[in-house]
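Re: [help] complex structure
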Amino acid sequence: MLEYARWKYILIVAVLLVAMIFALPNIFGLAPALQLAHRDHSPVTSAEAAAIADYLRAQRVSLTRAYVDGSGRLMVEFADSSDQFKANDIANAKYQGTYISALSLVSRAPAFFRALGLKPMPLGLDLRGGLDLLYQVDTNSSVAQMLQNYLQDSARALAAAKIPVRNIRFTTTGDSQLQNAIQIAFAPGIDLAGAQQALISPLQGLTITKQSGADGSQLLIAAMSPAQVKQREDYAIEQSVTTLRNRVNQLGVSEPKVQRQGVDRIDVQLPGVQNAAEVKNLLGQIAQLEFRLNDETANAIQAAQTGDVPLGDKLYTNTAMGGPVLLKREVIATGDQLTNATVGQGQQGPAVDVTLNSKAGDNMMRTTRQNVGKRMAVVLIEKHQETSTRNGKKVVHEVTTQRVVNDATIQGVFGDRFEITGLSSGEAQDLSILLRSGSLPASIFLVNEQVIGPSLGKENIRMGIDALIIGMAGVLGFMLIYYKVFGLVADLVLVANVILLTALLSMMGASLSLPGIAGIILTVGIAVDANVLIYERIREELRKGVTPQAAIRAGFEKAFSAIADSNVTTFFAGIVLWVFGTGAIRGFAVVLTLGIATSMFTSLMGSRALVTLMYGRKRKVARLPI
Amino acid sequence: MEFFSHQTDFKFMATRHVWYGLSAILMIASVVMLFTRGLNLAIDFTGGVSAQASFPATVDLGAVRSQLAAAGFHDPQVQNVGSSRVVAIRLPPEPKVSGQVIHDRVESALRAVNPGAAVQQLAVVGPQVGSELEVSAAWSLFFTLLLIFGYIALRFHTWRLSFGAILAVLHDPILVLGWFAASQTSFDLSVVAAILAVIGYSLNDTVVVFDRIRERFESNRRLAPNTVLDQSINQTLSRTIMTKFVTAIVVVALLVLGGPVLKGFSEALLIGILAGTYSSIYISSAVALECGLTAEHIFPTVKKTALDSQP
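Output below.
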């Protein structure tokens, strides 16, 4: 007699049932679809949807259905991807101005699956085509910006306390004391205690040290601690991820992915997107936004001609208005202090309604109270990295372009809520998107980009699935021939393993890439290994002359430690890959690691349950078909 | 069906010095290959531009090359992948130029060869990403080895087996790297993943043999270590070969059907599996034997005196 606890049977059956339910949506496959969203993000009406569908049909594109999804976007499904491409070309030609189109894949599973939250594995970019952009966040610039804020606050506080300052600057390099520090120089004889008192509030959290300068001036140095720098850098990256995510959402792409990668990288995956240029324009180029006062007392045109810029002003020649402007150096608010921006209808035409956070709101209130009737400008700072060859060496340097995108009159005193007017309808639209998607607290640079055509994706998935099916069939056939009935058990267990793995991946929403398919295939190998270990052990015991049932028991028990130990080591390799790997490597690691877990479960518990069921009941078994 | 109806009884350990020699030759050859020819690093590591394009008909690679050169790309590498109508193109890094611009330039150059040409895939990798990847690949390897060493030392109570396992683990990737240097197959990130999987796989084998060694020592402590090792390897031989054979089936399927993207990956796996089978027999176990492995190391005798001394 062989026995196997009843609860184990129940557990196995329960796990398999749940797994089958979760794996089921994958069977229906994915239908090629075209997603059309309004450029201004207003929902598509059903009348518009019907009109577009009719137009596509009139152009001899056969579509299976067209509907408006939950986010107000029109989805058009096709039976074949050639229709999808054709429809995309037609839609781009006709609706370019009003709609953003993206190639998409939609589950063919019946609607109630979606209602239950059951979804098939999404396909990775290599299998469905799309655009992959890897950005690097320049964390140094974000730290520098913070120092600039400290500097401004300090200068203002000292001016308010009427303490004259010789020189104030910040440094990002130097020895430990001068690294990421504000350096304020005072003339000899100035009361430093008073200055320190005034600086308590603006330089909160920084450690302030006194020094004497080379020219006899007294120095106060306030340095950011490494922890503060690190915190600022992390903030910059997290904020950049958020901003990029917002911008990606503005694109209306289906299933976009924006995630932090490594220390200071952000990976943006846009399935189905092919027009890289448009996307990159919106995603990467806009770095920072600043609100500054216009210095109307000086003549900007003259300043631009002579190059003689009044003290405390900054000259901008690149403006949306055409002519040059002089803006005050002081920044009233920055884009990352902005909480919302929407297009509204003001008294004088289209307007952008802006909401700031409380700190920036206070500052804005203070500024506007003193400057009603004067002008305020919005400056857009764009940065990108250029590599040039200097003295035979490659030098990477940053190129910054600053553009005044808007210059409007302050109509009254306002704080955290105000309106920007004097815009055309289109300008209001663009400015609101720009403002709403947030400014990046640090410059980001594109370091890696990849476009995968949809037809290549289709080819990749065909090859991957072919390899999987042929590989599986080879293994299943061989096991059946080599181990007969026990081979059949192994085959059932292998299939169960693939179902379990598919279910887990679907549950996690992990996207399936080509390396992921390779991982599944490899898992089949690992799962077979466990079975082979058990069966060879059973054969070995039988050769020793042990009775069949005792051989089965010994086979499972003695093989256990070998299976566990050997899988744990492979598991380690998988975990390390998971932690260190990125992109495709991580996809492989996820599948490998999960696959080891599922194969341990299916081959140890599943096959034992089956074998016990087959040979355990009888009092005596004469021969084992192994 | 059974390939091993009788228990095999090969004297593995007796001939181990011959195999050490072979291993040494292979390893040295691999290292020499690595240093003389080097790896054909993909743009994952070097930075640059890689593209894949399809043509409506068979295309003359020379024409593609000259058109690309005419379009201003320095030293373009062009080769067929999978079919005579699909070409893979590699271009050196182009600073200051966006991917879209390169895409358009490549496409118009290809259309000069055949108007029906289409760029299916284009990747632009910045040089700094590549060098970081090398570092992270090295760290992955280091941590994997460290974890494995710790785990085996913990499970088998002796560093001798850990040491043997680590040597075997180093042996396999070196041979795989040697192969990639010799064949000049493109070495990309997926190959690194495959090598780490190979490490896991090869260990799998090693640990199965170790497990049997532990079991043999447990049942008979008086047996000479080399006899135990021989017995253990023989007893697990059928399993080792069976598993490798079955895994080879799926890897060959990947190699043949998986297309160009998975070629390097499956090639690395196949070589690694072959090397791993051998190394788990001749490197890991034999090295532990050279380190003086005895039953005592795995099952230390409980000292009676310690018990007696207690009140």
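Chain B touches chain A through 75 residues (CB under 8 Å).
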